Amino acid sequence: MDQPTVPPGGGIRALADLCQRSGVEELEAEHEGWSVRLRLDPQAMPSPVSPPSRPDTEPSNGPHVQLSQWVGVFHRTAEQGADPLAREGQHVREGDIIGVVVAMQLQSDVRAEREGEIGRFLVDDGGPVEYGQPLLEFT
Known about the structure:
disordered N terminus; mainly beta
């Protein structure tokens, strides 16, 4: 029997590292006879680095605006029919999951960048988002 070869691009470790850097918690991939499903523990992963704030979206005397770190569709619930992960007026701690962005069947958690009260969401549930687009305001 032939020995299996490592999938292209550095193998499973490379996929796991890519998932960790991009904030993806679960990935299923298949290539030339290989299939792999990765589930990473979000508690063991470092928080993704936030993009730098733009002066035009965060005036010094106004609310803090959290920007999207992903491109996809924003959802306020983790799964259809569930309660929202966070609501306007709710106090959250830094790192709390406040929404998800889904792209190509991959779900990425949106975590609060800071502790505070959510003033308002700037994207509708189920609305498309771009990288760097304002998602919500903290009061």
